Amino acid sequence: MSIINIFKKIIQKRPNENDYGINLSIPSLKKFLTYLPPNPMILNVGCGIGQDSKFLKENGCYVLGVDSSKEMINRAKVYAPEVKFELQDFMKLEPSVKYDAIWCSRVFHHMVNIGPEKFFGQAKNLLKEKGVLYLTSVASDTERGEIIKNNLVIRGLTENSFKSMVMENGFEILDFNYWDDRKGMEIFARVK
Ligand SMILES: C[S@@+](CC[C@H](N)C(=O)[O-])C[C@H]1O[C@@H](n2cnc3c(N)ncnc32)[C@H](O)[C@@H]1O
């Protein structure tokens, strides 16, 4: 099943915004803001129903939220009408606008068909000099490969392989954390 159809099904099963991670990322969003200039331009990749975009907009950022799922974008436009959302595949975005930062939460591990060089290359195309990238991943015992979780094929990465993937693709790491249950991890990075 394509990723678009997977997320269509997932969102249809979750009619309530609170089922979709509202407030989950707030501590990380607050830390993200500390790395940014005032009123930064943010690209929210795989924005889902728009809760993180809404927070960023409320905290002084100019935000574009993009998602390749029509259902997610429709929900985002209702949930946060003050934010600009577009139905777009991140990999196909043209670098006509450059961003101070990219926020990409709970998305990268689903991008199993996109090689890391292509993903990070596109992130660098869209970021300004010294732009900031926030990225999360599921944590696994697999160094680099695919794993199955909740019946979905996702990218498997350990702490070391996640960090080295980010560094060997042109970013320096600003901060790294495991989430409390150590099943997920996040990286704050900057273009070298
Ligand atoms: C697990 S959801 C997370 C949504 C949101 N970031 C959050 O934390 O609530 C993953 C999202 O990534 C989107 N996505 C996956 N690949 C994408 C791509 N290439 N371009 C844009 N969005 C993508 C999916 O449609 C889905 O909405």
- How many distinct helices? 6
What value does the Rg take, in angstroms? 15 Å
Quaternary structure classification: single chain
Spatial arrangement of strands, main beta sheet: 3-2-1-4-5-9-8
Q: Span from first to last CA? A: 37 Å
What's the number of structural domains? 1
Overview of the structural elements:
The protein has 192 residues and is an alpha/beta fold. It has one domain (3-8, 25-33, 40-191): Rossmann fold (3-Layer(aba) Sandwich), CATH 3.40.50.150. It has helices at residues 3-12, 26-34, 51-58, 70-79, 116-126, 159-168; strands at residues 41-45, 62-67, 84-87, 99-104, 127-138, 144-149, 152-157, 171-178, 184-191. The longest helix is centred in the middle third of the chain and has 11 residues, at 116-126. Bound molecules: S-adenosylmethionine. S-adenosylmethionine binds at residues 3, 7, 20-21, 45-48, 66-69, 72, 89-91, 105-107, 110-111.
Descriptive tags:
single chain, 192 residues, alpha/beta, Rossmann fold, two-stranded antiparallel ribbon, 6 helices, 9 strands, globular, binds S-adenosylmethionine
